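Re: the request from the purification team.
They wanted to know what the chain is likely to look like in 3D before they choose a buffer screen. I agreed to run a prediction and write the result into the notebook, where they can find it.
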Amino acid sequence: MASVILAEMTASVSELKKNPMGTVAAGEGAPVAILNRNEPAFYCVPARAYEAMMERLDDIELNAIADARRDQPIIKVSLDEL
């Protein structure tokens, strides 16, 4: 069965076991698809790339909240009222 591989670099599970940090380094900061019997089993994502993904997802969620609230009426309050 054909699979989509969403990474430019791939490695086998055996390669990952032999040299985990070398496998991560081979991706040069990008994710590495780890293959099991030529099928993607998981993606090895460096910490910086993962953190950037999580920040991006957070931004997307916050934008969705802001978009949903865009047409709500504005209520002005003063700090003294709080």
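For the purification team: The mean pLDDT is 95.
Please add any questions underneath this entry.
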